[in-house]
Structure formats: structure tokens, C-alpha cells
Amino acid sequence: MDKKDIPNDYYKMYEDRYQRVYDHGLEVWGKNVISSELDIFVEKANINKNMSGIDIGCGEGVNTIYLAKKGLKITGVDFSKTGLDTARKLAKKENVEIDFIQDDALVLSNFKDDSFDFGICSGCLHMLVTQSDRNKLLKQIKRVLKADGIFFLLNRGDGAKDEYPDVENIYEDREWIWVDKDGKRLDAIKLPHLPSWPRSWENHLKEIDHGGFEVVHKFNSINKSFSDSMCVILKPKI
Ligand SMILES: C[S@@+](CC[C@H](N)C(=O)[O-])C[C@H]1O[C@@H](n2cnc3c(N)ncnc32)[C@H](O)[C@@H]1O
What we know:
The strands form 2 sheets. The chain has a 7-stranded mixed β-sheet, with helices on both faces. The chain has a two-stranded antiparallel ribbon with strand order 6-7. The N and C termini lie far apart (38 Å). The protein has 6 helices and 9 strands; from the N terminus they run H-H-E-H-E-H-E-E-H-E-E-E-H-E-E. Helices cover 27% and strands 29% of the residues. It binds S-adenosylmethionine (SAM).
């Protein structure tokens, strides 16, 4: 399959992935929060309780909940109904009120222009496997963010090189293996492949610039969710 030929319904396979994992009694992304990275964002961007935010591609909402527990107003968005159901349950357990809304991040049809003061997108842009889809997501972020808004992006990779994903046979299942903390194999199931696309810093910064953003701060990090990660705080270019 060519890079340009990703079908429109491709990202809907995330729903299938969540369902199959839960049906098997396992967890999808685990309960890992990118807490250190979010703390840097909140501090550097002066995020405060008067601001309202969005978490795009929030999945099971662990980062959304982390920010809500700091007293911040935040809405979570994901394509997967099943992932969002888990997010709602976790939020209830943690006693925080969050709207979790099902929507396509490439369209964000539920949201008006200039709706949010801040936003985050953790591990979602890197799941988009064509440049045109990545541009669409960045365009939506720009659209729903206020002109003086601020945004945090985290994507997998150390930025050393562009690792274009294997998009051949995207409808083929791949084995996912769960291991314990000592690396011992716990379980394995077949899941939709859904590869990610870690970019080089050079190309990531190019797509950010093309999306109409300027970089306020960037850094590399290592975390339990995505291992090597590239973090960028952005503001819309005037
Ligand atoms: C790697 S997970 C990251 C989840 C969470 N943000 C985190 O950091 O743990 C990627 C998430 O992006 C969501 N996603 C992928 N494509 C999407 C799209 N087009 N619209 C909305 N969500 C999407 C998936 O359903 C999945 O929950």
C-alpha cells in the first residue's frame, strides 16, 4: 500500500483494538501518565484554573485526569468509544468532572473555532501515517485553539531519524505481547497493526511550522508510555 492510500476509516481500527484487549481482560495503554512532561508544560505555559483545555486523542484519559486533578478544566476527545468509556470510569473513580467526547481528531466536528486556551495531544499525532493526515490534525489544533492559546505535543521517538512506518498490509493483525516488570511474558493477542510514525526533529519541526505554529520550548524525554519521546510547546503564529 502506498503512503497516500490510507483509507478514511483506518483510524477506526483503534476501537477494535480497545475492544479486543478489554475482551481479553487486559489493559491497552496501561495507566501511565506523562506527568513530568505535563508538569513542565503547565509551569512553562503558565496554565491556570481560569483556562479551559482539550486533550486530543486522550484514549483512556489518564493525562486528562491528571490535569483535571490539578483543578484544570479539560475536555477529552478520542475516536474510540470503548477507550472513552474507560476514561469516564477512571474519572469517576478519581472524582473529577471531565467531558469525554467521541470525535475524529482530523475533523473535531464537535468543536467551534477558538474554543480552548490550552491543549495537549499525547501519542496521537505519531499514530497518523500520512503527512496529509498529520497536517489535518495540526490544522484542527490551530482551529480550536484561541489565537493566544498554547499547546503541548508529545510524540514517540528521539528525533534522530524519520522512521516511516510499515503501512504494507495495514489490515493484517500483529501479535501484541504483555510482559511483567522483569520482562516475563504474561500474555499475547493478535491486534490491528496500527503502526506509529516517529519523525526526525527536522521533519517534525517542519510540519509544526507548516501547521502555523511557532515553538515556545522543545525537549526530549523518556517515559513509561512511549519510551523516547519528543515534546513541543507550541503557540499559533500571528
Ligand atoms: C497511543 S494512544 C495515546 C492515548 C493517550 N493520549 C496517552 O497518552 O496515553 C493514541 C490514541 O489516539 C487515538 N486516535 C488515533 N487516531 C485518532 C483520530 N483520528 N481521532 C481521534 N483519536 C484518534 C486512539 O484511539 C488512541 O486512543
